[in-house]
Amino acid sequence: MIISKIIGSGSCLPDRVIPNSHFDYLVENADEWIFSRTGIRERRFAHADQATSDLATIAARNALENAGIDASELDCIVIGTSTPDMSLPSTACIVQENIAAKNAFAFDVNAVCSSFVYALEIADNFIKCGKYKTVMAIGADVYSRILDFNDKNSCPLFGDGAGAAILTSGGSSELGIQHTYMRSDGKGWQLIQVPSSGSRKPITPETIDARDIYFQMAGKQVYIFATDVIPDIIESLCAKAGIKPSDLDYIIPHQANIRMIDFISKKCGFPKEQFLINLDRCGNTSAASVALVLDENLRNGTIKPGNLVLTMAFGGGLTWGGLLVRF
Known about the structure:
This protein is α/β, with parallel strands linked by helices. It has two domains: 4-169, 3-Layer(aba) Sandwich (Peroxisomal Thiolase, Chain A, domain 1); 176-326, Peroxisomal Thiolase, Chain A, domain 1. It has nine helices and 13 strands. The strands form four sheets. A five-stranded mixed β-sheet has the order 1-7-6-4-5, with helices on both faces. A four-stranded mixed β-sheet has the order 8-13-12-11, with helices on both faces. Strand 4 (76-80), helix 3 (91-99) and strand 5 (105-109) form a beta-alpha-beta unit. Helix 2 (52-67) crosses helix 3 (91-99) and helix 6 packs across helix 7 (258-268). The longest helix has 23 residues, at 219-241.
């Protein structure tokens, strides 16, 4: 059986730091108000001339350098994003051109905040089928372009960024992606959406005035959904592997809200210090969330050879899923 492994990772965070105090116009003492509810202190916003493909390109180049391979060795590029450069063509094709991956085919996948774990699932299966050898999965989003900056309950939550991982064959029962678990539930599609952004409700002066061109989320319902499915991801992946959560070295959760992570830590009995987190510095970077934390902790040596790491995410759709990876 062919098993895929991660041979390199990379990331990109814009250098424009947005502290909580930026939102003082929305709420008094924004820093304390936001931090106490989310665990976020600051986030990064892309510059006006930076699109999703620009961040993804930097992350991709960093991953190639980390893996020690040339872009021409890539068979496929999968970008997970819900903020593409434009509705067409795919952002992945733009990144392919930018990095000169002349032998790859490229496409996007949109599972909102779950997009990177979905992209990893696709990359893993492409390799397992034996048809492709080297696949790059990227999670990238620029949510600062779709936020309603009059909505104090959503706009302080998000930041921009991109992360990439390169997978290839050569894994084993002791190395690589061991198990995956992906789910969706379309009954909840209305809970997270940008109503006027496509063919159902095209952008018009009326939808602009109604602010339907911006991100909308039913926060309480999403919290209930997340705290239900996150334990499901952990329990299902551990059951597939025949292990207990205590056998994991680390969990990389979607970086949405520290309260969710506290709740899951208590519910699953998994130490909070073994959740790898950048939420305080980056906010919710949507599709980039898991990818950014993965790259940071591989590069700083927190994740060591032999470690068993569970990565997981949830997002609009509704979507959720995770992967169990041995490094």
